[in-house]
Amino acid sequence: MKRVIYISLAALLAVMVVSLIFWLVTGEVNIVAPVMGAIIVVLLAIKASKNKNF
């Protein structure tokens, strides 16, 4: 259960960071780029969580 919470927090943080950077660069709010970034972070977190050290 802890792993799901960590992955969810990582995805939320990724969405916030990517959308903030995109907003600072372009001045627009875009939802596609942060969602794609969150999907990548979730996939990496799932891959990393399969290790026993996570």
TrEMBL record:
Keyword terms: Membrane, Transmembrane, Transmembrane helix
Bilayer-spanning residue ranges: 5-25, 31-48
Protein name (database record): Uncharacterized protein
Organism the protein comes from: Winogradskyella psychrotolerans RS-3
